[in-house]
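dumping this here so i dont lose it
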């Protein structure tokens, strides 16, 4: 009998009961909620007269609808009445259920997928669920994370379990070293581009290889976060010394004995040598350049040295129609270079690239330079803790001096659910994870890229190769 994959081991260790040949009842170690996917779940629970079974294994945060205006955290106010009601309802339910909440004025408030790891809530081997598709982030620490729907939120609140359809296994090996100027964001856009927006559909993806080994814990979070854009149901990286150092520094609730026991368990969290994967891909990191999306899907991307594809070269009629629609929406000419495209806005932040390492990179690019005239550039840290650290390190001062807006934490312009939105026709260089039509504002145009590339675009007023910018210093 073949060995087990890391995904198989995580699922098996959390199987409460077998439902049928495809489904199991899965135990959930930590359940995270936000203000926009939880209201109906709490209402359903109340209608049945039930309480959360294990409130200590729930956590909630206000992050999607909160404004990020640069006012002191204690003075943050959600002016939009509908959004304010969502936040108030979340607090009311959390208070009634005894669930921890990072509320609007909490100095540690931030994006759920930034807060949870930085506070030591995520440990290797856990199952972590949330009503948000980018819960795959936690695979960077060897935890099984994935997004769920509102009805499933209610089920977890009531039972701490989920009826779960087991995924297939995919392994993506990336060997070699990423070249200078190329980051985990470029890597994941490259992977999504290569395998397609549905290339990992139905699979749990495990990353391995020397390029993955060389990534920091936060860079791995970027990689796992965006793997869902290839249709993956989960993304995983086996725990190693990098994982151990990151987690041990933050899991302060574990004493020395508990940490030692945990490390013994973490050492077992890897795919067996004879494990069989349903699909495999192998990539060479040395061949990857900074990538930029040109269309309306994360897989519609090219190297910054490339050009917008010509739909006429696509033989499949439906695919050709999709390309034509994307080119029309994004307002570019087929065959035109992606470099040199003028931008109006720059957004740096989100659960993909709002961590301290991301902001350090941006500060290094813009130090001593200025944002181009006519460009509005925003930096939104992923959490209150990230914001405080950036201020302590002088990063915030560098960004402000360069002409960036230094905002309070939140999901912000990642999606048009607050007042940080694009106006119709505005073009944005963005470090977020999705470039769908209207994602950042009705008729807004989004180009996904790394923090370094977005910083370079802010300085130049157009999409440029950050490697060229660095050579001019």
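and the seq i came up w/
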């Amino acid at each position: 009998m073949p060995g087990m994959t890391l995904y198989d081991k995580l699922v098996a260790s959390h199987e409460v009961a077998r439902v049928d040949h495809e489904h199991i009842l899965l135990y959930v170690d930590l359940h995270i909620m936000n203000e926009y996917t939880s209201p109906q779940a709490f209402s359903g629970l109340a209608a049945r007269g039930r309480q959360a079974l294990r409130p200590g294994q729930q956590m909630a945060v206000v992050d999607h609808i909160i404004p990020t205006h640069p006012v002191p955290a204690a003075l943050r106010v959600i002016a939009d009445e509908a959004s304010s009601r969502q936040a108030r309802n979340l607090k009311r339910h959390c208070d009634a259920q005894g669930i921890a909440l990072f509320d609007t004025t909490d100095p540690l408030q931030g994006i759920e997928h930034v807060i949870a790891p930085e506070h030591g809530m995520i440990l290797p081997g856990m199952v972590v669920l949330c009503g948000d598709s980018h819960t795959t982030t936690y695979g960077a620490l060897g935890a099984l994370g994935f997004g769920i729907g509102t009805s499933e939120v209610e089920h977890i609140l009531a039972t701490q379990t989920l009826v779960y359809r087991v995924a297939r296994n995919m392994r993506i090996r990336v060997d070699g070293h990423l070249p200078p100027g190329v980051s985990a964001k470029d890597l994941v856009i490259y992977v999504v581009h290569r395998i397609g927006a549905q290339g990992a559909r139905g699979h749990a993806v495990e990353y391995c290889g020397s390029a993955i080994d060389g990534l920091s814990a936060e860079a791995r979070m970027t990689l796992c976060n965006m793997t869902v854009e290839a249709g993956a149901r989960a993304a995983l990286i086996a725990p190693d010394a990098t994982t151990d150092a990151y987690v041990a520094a933050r899991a302060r609730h574990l004493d020395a004995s508990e940490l030692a026991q945990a490390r013994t368990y973490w050492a077992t969290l890897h795919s067996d040598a004879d494990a069989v994967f349903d699909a495999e891909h192998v990539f060479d990191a040395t061949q990857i350049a900074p990538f930029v999306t040109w269309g309306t899907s994360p897989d519609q991307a090219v190297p910054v040295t490339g050009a917008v594809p010509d739909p006429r070269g696509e033989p499949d009629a439906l695919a050709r129609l999709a390309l034509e629609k994307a080119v029309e929406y994004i307002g570019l000419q087929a065959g035109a270079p992606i470099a040199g495209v003028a931008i109006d806005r720059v957004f740096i932040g989100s659960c993909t690239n709002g961590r301290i390492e991301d902001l350090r990179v941006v500060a290094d690019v813009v130090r001593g330079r200025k944002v181009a005239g006519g460009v509005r550039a925003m930096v939104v840290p992923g959490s209150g803790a990230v914001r405080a650290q950036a201020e302590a390190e002088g990063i915030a001062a560098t960004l402000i001096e360069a002409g960036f807006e230094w905002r309070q934490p939140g999901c912000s312009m990642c999606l048009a659910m607050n007042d940080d939105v694009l106006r119709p026709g505005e073009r944005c260089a963005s470090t977020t994870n999705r470039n769908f039509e209207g994602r950042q504002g009705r008729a807004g145009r989004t180009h996904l890229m790394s923090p370094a590339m977005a910083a370079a675009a802010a300085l130049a007023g157009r999409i440029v190769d950050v490697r060229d910018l660095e050579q001019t210093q």
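The chain has two domains: 6-10+14-165, 291-471.
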